[in-house]
Write a structure and sequence with these properties.
By secondary structure, this protein is mainly α. 76% of the residues lie in helices and 0% in strands. It contains ten helices and no strands. The longest helix is centred in the C-terminal third of the chain and has 38 residues.
């Protein structure tokens, strides 16, 4: 993922002032980006399943060696990969298609009708992403611990998220999952801002006015290779994410088993 991020070319936004999307320059992606992307897709299911198995072992008080945990993650690799492709493919589809329509709505010129259409498409995109988030709330757990295929795992995730509708809202798996995910995201962003602040201040040292700051940011955006500060910043951000991911996995394991118990009782 580091190599993919560093070597991926800058993708310029289309110039809407020209009234045409054909003026967007062609971006050439180097072969190493394709290789790293394929490796990331192939290895991501092992990482995702591994977090679930480790959290489950901690919850059950069970001790397994790294080899056994890795073997368990490899055993469900195909199901995790299929479910992950369906999940992230759905997110990508319902993000790219509405966003393209939003750009097209403004490409012909800014008017009251185009702005209204832009806002309606944006609201629809947020609605669809919200529904997908709810339906896929427990997909990592159902794919890792289930015996059925990817489609049935996603169906079980949807049923678990929407079970116990008669319970008070704070006790429903849907609300608990959303609250935990939101808390984790806010915590992650807060810590990332805190650890990124020293790098930002070090980079802006000597900048005396906004014009110099804009020129600095533009030069960084156009740089072909990252500098030492950018590399260090990316490494620290990745470590923070890695250290906080077990907190999210452990929390969702508890909510997952609670949801299964509520579903059996209903």
């Amino acid at each position: 993922m580091f190599v993919l991020q560093w070597y991926f070319p800058k993708v310029p936004l289309p110039d809407l002032s020209s009234g045409s999307l054909e003026a967007m320059p062609t971006v050439t992606v180097p072969p190493i980006c394709f290789v790293m992307f394929v490796l990331t897709v192939l290895l991501w299911p092992i990482s995702t399943a591994g977090f679930q198995y480790v959290a489950d072992d901690v919850l059950r008080g069970r001790r397994r060696s790294f080899k056994d945990q890795l073997s368990a993650a490899l055993w469900c690799w195909g199901r995790m990969l299929s479910a992950g492709l369906l999940v992230y493919g759905s997110y990508l589809f319902w993000t790219v298609i509405p966003f393209t329509a939003m750009i097209a709505a403004l490409a012909s010129g800014i008017s009251v009708v185009s702005l209204l259409l832009y806002l309606l498409i944006g609201a629809f995109m947020v609605y669809m992403i919200g529904r997908l988030f709810v339906n896929f709330l427990f997909w990592e757990q159902t794919a890792a611990f289930g015996e059925a295929g990817a489609l049935l795992a996603l169906r079980e995730s949807k049923e678990l998220a929407r079970c116990a509708p008669e319970a008070p809202r704070p006790d429903r798996p849907l609300y608990r999952g959303v609250i935990v995910a939101t808390f984790w995201l806010v915590l992650l962003l807060a810590i990332l801002i805190g650890v990124q602040l020293p790098f930002t201040l070090a980079r802006l040292s000597g900048v005396e006015n906004p014009d110099q700051a804009m020129a600095l940011m533009q030069s960084l955006a156009q740089a072909k290779t990252p500098d030492a500060l950018m590399v260090a910043s990316d490494i620290v951000s990745a470590l923070v994410n890695l250290l906080l991911r077990p907190l999210l996995a452990a929390s969702f394991i508890v909510i997952y088993y609670d949801a299964k118990a509520r579903k059996r009782a209903s």
